[in-house]
Write a structure and sequence with these properties.
By secondary structure, the chain is an alpha/beta fold. The chain folds into two domains: about 190 residues, Rossmann fold, CATH 3.40.50.2000; about 150 residues, 3-Layer(aba) Sandwich (Rossmann fold). β5, α5 and β6 form a beta-alpha-beta unit.
Length: about 375
């Protein structure tokens, strides 16, 4: 049994900060209660999201400790970005030699962290393991499949994700723990209700506006898909819907490159986590290609239309809260006219104590 275990968390993108926060809180509580083994936790931030509104504001709001390493990788092609991350994460891990490396989600930071740790023969744990869209054109799908197959501990958010891993021959070290994002929503929505002024600042009336987000490469890097989506948005705005879009930097860049402009849609800068929670909770319905936003809409019981042809969060579709509408203008507009609520009898994402469950499993491993 170790008296102290050293754990590294590798993050770098906005959704990962949200997933990291419950782990940080669980570690603090564990150490405050003088539980054994004591945990020495540090953060490696790759800098995949380098804009304040895409990264640092999340550290500030979620009270995440300052990273021990900030690698400042920034943007680039997938190969270029992942390669830089791999080199710099490896250097940090060699300096620290942690007992365990935690990686989160499905970004390039996830894959780079898992690869670097695995090649150094360090134990790797994947939080949000087992998700599958079965679309290998998605960079995220490649990242999550490879990460799962080189990880030692696989923390799954749903029963379906456990079954996905079992079908691929992965059964050892697999745990169904629930979803850390549900932990974050439950913990932070009350704080957001007190602090956020986004509705007042934008003069929005609850349930009287539509929220939209677009950032996935399958949409932003495909001119025809992106044009079709924004033509649909313009048509929705013309029909009297107040459509609000916090514009991702990648999306803004591609819109400018293609000369796409919209006049009946309200484009705003990326917003903080607390502001985003309030925009989601109070929307009439949501249009998105984000996995995280799909789930948060589900948690808030807000109907969601997903601008993709498949989703790894199929529970949201099965319960009727989410509908896949792809990128075709007519299909998107038609779905907006047929919005309906789903069923919310049992939450498939756990009870909001996933961080605690993950830490309990890790602690037990090092007590043996």
């Amino acid at each position: 049994m170790l008296d102290v275990i050293k754990i590294a968390s590798v993050v770098g993108a906005r959704p990962q900060f949200i997933k990291l926060a419950p782990i940080v809180r669980a570690i603090k509580k564990h150490n405050d209660l003088l539980c054994k083994p004591r945990i020495n936790h540090f953060i490696i931030d790759t800098g995949q999201h380098y804009d304040y509104l895409m990264s640092k504001v999340f550290y500030d709001e979620l009270e995440i400790p300052v990273p021990a390493y900030h690698l400042e990788v920034g943007s680039g092609t997938h190969g270029n970005q992942t390669g830089k991350m791999l080199e710099r994460v490896e250097a940090a891990l060699l300096r620290e030699l942690p007992d365990l490396v935690l990686v989160y989600g499905d970004t390039n930071s996830t894959l780079a962290g898992a690869l670097a740790a695995s090649k150094l023969h360090l134990t790797v744990a994947h939080i949000e393991a087992g998700l599958r869209s079965y679309n290998k054109r998605m960079p995220e799908e490649i990242n999550r499949v490879l990460t799962d197959h080189i990880s030692d501990l696989l923390f799954c958010p749903t029963e379906i994700s456990v079954r996905n891993l079992n079908k691929e021959g992965l059964a050892e070290g697999v745990f169904w723990v629930g979803d850390v994002m549900y932990d974050s929503v439950l913990f932070n929505v009350k704080i957001a209700e007190r602090r956020s002024k986004i509705l007042e600042n934008l003069q929005l009336i609850p349930k009287n506006y539509v929220l939209a987000t677009v950032h996935r490469a399958e949409n932003t890097d495909n001119p025809e898909r992106l044009k079709s989506i924004f033509i649909a948005f313009e048509e929705i705005g013309l029909k009297g819907k107040s459509l609000i879009i916090p514009l991702h930097p990648r999306t803004q860049k591609e819109l400018e490159k293609l000369g796409i402009s919209v006049t009946n849609v309200r484009l705003i800068e990326p917003v903080s986590y607390f502001d985003m929670l309030m925009l989601e909770k109070n929307a009439q319905f949501i249009l998105t290609d984000s996995g995280g936003v799909q789930k948060e809409a589900f948690f808030f019981k807000v109907p969601c239309l997903t601008l993709r042809d498949e989703t790894e969060w199929i529970e949201t579709v099965d319960t009727g809260w989410n509908k896949l509408v792809g990128c075709e203008r007519d299909r998107i507009v038609k779905a907006c006219n047929e919005i309906s609520e789903g069923i919310f009898s049992i939450n498939p994402y756990g009870e909001g104590e996933t961080g605690k469950h993950i830490l309990s499993i890790i602690s037990s491993k090092y007590k043996a």
